[in-house]
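From: lab user (bench 3)
To: helpdesk
Subject: output format question, protein + ISE

Hello, I'm new to running complex predictions and I'm not sure whether the block I got back is the full result or only part of it. Here's what I submitted:
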Amino acid sequence: MKDHELRVGIIGVGVMGADHAHRIARLVANARLVAVSDPDTTRAQAVAGQYDGVRAISDALDLVADDDVDAVVIASPGSVHEEQVLACLEAGKYTLCEKPLTMDSASSLRLVRAERDRGRPLVQLGFIRRFDPEYAQLKELLSSGRLGRTLLVHNTHRNKDVPDSFRSEMIVRDSLVHEVDVARFVFDEEIEEITVLSPAPSGHSPEGVVDPQVAIFRMAGGGIVTNEVFVRSQVGYEVRCEVVCERGTVIAGRPWGDLYSTTSGDTGGSWGGTVPTDFRARFARAYDLEIQAWADASRRGEVVGPTTWDGYAATAVCEAGLKSLATGAPVPVGLADVAEDTNYA
Ligand code: ISE
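Helpdesk reply: Thanks, we reran it on our side. This is the complete output you should expect:
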């Protein structure tokens, strides 16, 4: 594979998959989009038709097995990831799997073990924040030790709006899951306990949906992470992370000058920044860097970035978070033995 372009197939061409299709077909060096698959075959054909030489393959598992596909991007719903990732592992193909890895910790752990049993890593998880230049700089600054020990993290995660079908559980599994990864990335520690609080909901939430939510993580070393997730903010995509250390603080994702206030329909304005409308705009550069890093690593025969273990740990935290969402009480997170599950030797 080293000497030629990486021939990539994409499973799932909804919003994220279609965005990746454009990126791989047009922007990423040394990679070529060769096939796409989607249960909605009209959608698959429409995406394939936009680029020369791209086939629409109706069955996702046929795409994985195809001899002309070297590596696979999985951008389908989390509920079908287990069988698709397993197929990629069995075919020995490098894979970028969007979050969540799977819908429950037992199936995520099965994938960690299946990959380990093959003796070498093949799967990178799509936790995008790690590839955002500001988050990467923030991490570098923390690692330099200049700010001292990390004590607290405050994450903000707001979407402009989501469909009514986006229920409380999806806010945990699809949105909060990013902040779970941020917390583990920033602290380099596991999350030991999660509490999900349910403030009075916004009038824009459908009946019975808890939006916004506030989640609190207790880290293994005793640090605390607070997270606001509000997916119907009416304003735009606002994602930031503030880290409080012994000798200073650092913020990633800060778009403002002095007083900062946004209102629905006013995403530019006098306060000195611009709120993007969605994650594709906010993290465009990060997605480019992520997919390029994945393609380069795959061509070298390596995996970089978040692993199946990171996917499993995040799924386990969200699973505990769903229990907490039901009661408001703290729920401990139990993980399998790290040494056992990440030892490729
Ligand atoms: C979506 O799946 C994403 O990954 C976005 O980053 C997140 O902000 C959104 O809430 C999710 O639905």
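A quick orientation on your result: The chain is about 40% helix and 20% strand. Let us know if anything else is unclear.
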